[in-house]
Here is the input.
Amino acid sequence: MLVTGQPFPRNLSQFQAAFPDDAACRAWLASIRWAAGFACPGCGGRDGWVTARRGQMMCRACGRQVSVTSGTRLEHLRLPLTTLFWAAYLAVTLPGLNSVTLGRQFGLTSRQTAHRLLTTLRDAMATLPLSPLGGVIEADEMVVGGVTPGVRGWKVAGTAKRLVLVAAEQGTTRTRMVVIADRRGATLVPLLAQLVAPGSTVVTDGHSGYAGLPAAGFLWRRVPHPAGGLKRGGAGRATPAVDGAISRYKRWLLGTYNKPPADYAPYLGEFAFRSEFRRQPTTAFEALLGQLVG
Here is the structure.
């Protein structure tokens, strides 16, 4: 069993030894879902026991049997819990996991099944509430979606391209990326107020869309690009942490999924999740499974 503070399994074989069957997986999920004690979704009863035949919780008050996955994202997955757990292990330890790799690893003959499983994991990563960034934060925008003939710069209307706000915490890998409609202050400042802790210092380039940051409770450090534009090598960049995060995101997306997605939000959320729990596999695994049954 995984216990916070204990060494995380170094490979899939060790992890499979910790979760060899569905019973072990079900017991661990129950400890996460009902950490504060069992609560019957039918009558609200707090007392129950595990049935021997199906491993479900039987409510003592109304007799209802409750599966640990009922009413959660896992309810209709139709896969053994061991497959889910082993896939979650790979998801938090392999940054480049895609449905093809996942299907080959576990012998899933249907690519649709592998895709559905990975989508379930990705959506849980993307929707996990993350704590606000703090300290010194860099903010900038990027365009994603490939090249559109005749369209350059920030123009994305009517194309497959998207504008994305990127916020990166200096000194860590913590990053937030969110699709935005435009680069106006009415869009940028309220969104940063959701992503960044009040009182933090926000560093940006010379874009005037961030001028409302002081009124929103932030310290604003504006670093305009040097005259004549940026030079090769990155000297004079206002937001090097953001630039690094953007570079890592684009390499990760291209290397993992090979083509631009139709909907960027889940992939941006997955990248933020990975940036949050980098080198913290135990915390990442517990957070991911907790989100799936939360």
Remarks:
- The first strand starts at residue 48 and ends at 50.
- Residues 240-257 form the longest helix (18 residues).
